[in-house]
Design brief:
370 residues; mainly alpha; 2 domains; flat
Amino acid sequence: MEKRLFSIFEVAPTVGLYNTLLAISHDSEETDDRISSLLDKIAGDTPDTLVAALDIHILNGDVPQISALLKAHAHLLRPRDATTLQCAVTMLDSSHYHTASLTILERELDECIRAIHATVRSCFSHIEEEENKKDLLEILKLRTGTAPRKDRVAQWAERVVTSSGHFLPMAFAALMMGLPMMPGGDEGDDADFLNFVDWDQNDSDLDDLREEYRPNLKAIFDGWVHIAQGMRGGPSVLSKMYSKAVALMPWLRGPDVVNEMVVKFVMFIFSRPRLIKGTHRLRERPNKGHVLEALVNLSSFAKIQRKKISMAQENQRRAGGKTQAGNTQAPRSHPSSSPTGPPPLVGGIFSFGGQTSQFPPVPGGMEDVD
């Protein structure tokens, strides 16, 4: 029995099978050493074997092995393996591999932001046109909530939304490779590959395709943000990623702009339902829901970071004002009326020893914070 299970483990290792082998073994230490040697050999063969090896080392708390595997084979990990990678990074953070954990955190957040950007561009293909980019910068200079800004935001969102929600084959391949989507092109809904994987939501055989070609960017991004908040140096990484996100997607600076994009996108999804060929049923577009989720989620992240930055800037201004007041209102020295009186009172200067942090300017100040 043990020999049979071990032969299966050599081909398809899992944590459950690992625990079973240890439970039925007459010498668990010898079996554990044998499994460890095997994992060292096969961990880099496939993504599945790497994930299994990481899960087992995470279970055993073997941080050096986790670090070695990520250093050698991290490129094999897929979006669906984000949970395992996040657990591994959490363990590295509480060890002397802390620097490596921050490097992975920053890399993964950057990849998430770029993936969300590519996904959003697939539905707002005109958003990178120079005319629309210049118009957006002018809109962001207008006061939030004013009628001129509302009108221009609505017009801008109408122009940038993709006129057709269909993926061309080459455009789909470019999206999967992380390349920017090119505007234009219009084919029928049957050209959209994701309609195929969504044909039957209950077909478990298509789960792998759905996870591979339409990863849950919202859940992955939320997971990394949650981990960063508890890591040493994590908040600084989040602030840095916010700056990168705003530089890549300037429209994140305007919550009203994002809200209008969401409205236009929802109207687009439900504005032109089509019949499925050979049937009398309308084709739904569940494959576009992940775009909307990623857009709203990234906007929420930007709002939180913007509020934190604004609060930090306000605290710095208050601290600076107190320091200046302490310098200008220090009590003056008064001569003693008696030679035996107390010594003259010398004014003091209150110093603040904490280090200050530099934050990017927040357009519109606190007005942009919801």
